[in-house]
Design brief:
By secondary structure, this protein is α/β, with parallel strands linked by helices. The protein is built from 18 helices and 14 strands. β12, α16 and β13 form a beta-alpha-beta unit.
């Protein structure tokens, strides 16, 4: 059964400048971002964005600085007003909301985790964690139990009395996540939430998010400029360049079938063995026929895991298991071929060489 769409963005444009509607006429006529800036002094932030974000999934929006990813996420809760387009959240057009309804959505339906924590320095960790409830009018007694529970879940048990200046960067970000979870909002917006952290702490935070998501199934919109992070977290990946969606889809599919030289550049340095999974390259059970196998692997096992198990022997084949039943067969020769960039990638590299 298809997943329910929680957030739907349709034909979204954003032009920054003194007369954005006038500039839009040139954008719709095909004027590029650089031409619009040079000729009319306006910045094209987003051009014709169309993205569906499913309930319970992590949608990662990634791109380099200036690609429009932070601009896009700030449209979801209307921190930025679009120049044109539609934004639907749980079946309602957010652009039709008045101030009261918009405030209610931000308080009840969405929470936001920021790159630089956004903790109030004069409030304790516990008070920061219960911020959403405090804004709703609840006293400390109303949010204290839930706040303590979530602080414990993110590894900050006993830290509620501390102040932000007494915490490390990783601890501050854990407070930010516990604040979002304590709010009990079904949608979490995370704007480069882990980018300011050291690599090891960042990895820990990614693992924590995935662990919590297995239980909570929030609708998460996650902004990142790091492809490794995006491939690790995303159920649905959206790659932006100059305010345009270059490619979107299931991360494994994008890695195996990049459709643009720009995407090829992104994936060129990726360790494919650590990212690709058995389910992405297996032969489905109904097409596999009779094969002598050396054992079973899980559909979510990475190719690196399978290579280690086989000791690099390309003569092995494995039954791929999903939800406790056989769903396909993985031949080690197929696995080795998958480690080589696709024909589309090679075509892209040849184009750049010429």
């Amino acid at each position: 059964m298809p997943k329910e769409i929680s957030i739907s963005i349709r034909n979204l444009y954003k032009v920054f400048g003194a007369a954005p509607q006038d500039a839009m006429k040139h954008v719709l006529d095909g004027m590029s971002k650089s031409e619009l800036m040079e000729s009319h002094g306006h910045v094209l932030g987003l051009r014709d964005i169309n993205v569906d974000m499913h309930a319970g999934d992590i949608t990662v929006i990634m791109g380099l600085s200036g690609s429009g990813k932070s601009t896009l996420i700030r449209h979801v809760n209307r921190l930025i007003e679009p120049t044109a387009g539609e934004i639907w959240v749980d079946g309602e057009n957010v652009l039709e909301f008045g101030e009261d309804r918009l405030r209610q959505m931000r308080r009840m339906q969405m929470s936001m985790v920021f790159q630089h924590f956004a903790l109030l320095p004069h409030r304790t960790v516990l008070q920061n964690t219960g911020m959403a409830q405090a804004v709703r009018g609840e006293g400390r007694a109303g949010y204290e139990k839930a706040a303590h529970e979530w602080l414990e879940r993110v590894g900050l048990k006993g830290q509620g009395h501390q102040y932000p200046h007494q915490l490390s960067g990783g601890m501050k970000q854990r407070v930010g996540i516990s604040r979002a979870l304590t709010s009990n909002a079904p949608i979490m917006l995370m704007d480069e939430a882990f980018s300011a952290l050291d690599p090891l702490i960042r990895t820990d935070m990614q693992d924590l998010l995935l662990e919590l998501q297995q239980e909570l199934r929030k609708t998460i919109v996650f902004i990142s400029h790091d492809l490794d992070e995006a491939l690790k977290l995303a159920d649905h990946l959206v790659i932006l360049k100059d305010g345009i969606v270059i490619q979107q889809g299931e991360p494994q599919e994008i890695l195996l079938n990049p459709n643009d030289p720009y995407i090829v550049d992104f994936i060129s340095d990726i360790n494919r063995a650590r990212v690709l999974r058995a389910r992405s390259i297996m032969t489905p059970a109904e097409k596999a026929g009779h094969v002598i196998v050396s054992g079973e692997v899980d559909a979510e096992d990475t190719l690196e895991t399978i290579i280690s198990r086989s000791n690099g022997d390309t003569g092995h084949s494995y039954t791929v298991m999903g939800d406790g039943k056989p769903i396909g067969v993985l031949d080690m020769k197929t696995l080795v071929r998958a480690l080589v960039p696709s024909g589309a990638a090679n075509d892209g590299m040849r184009k750049r060489a010429t």
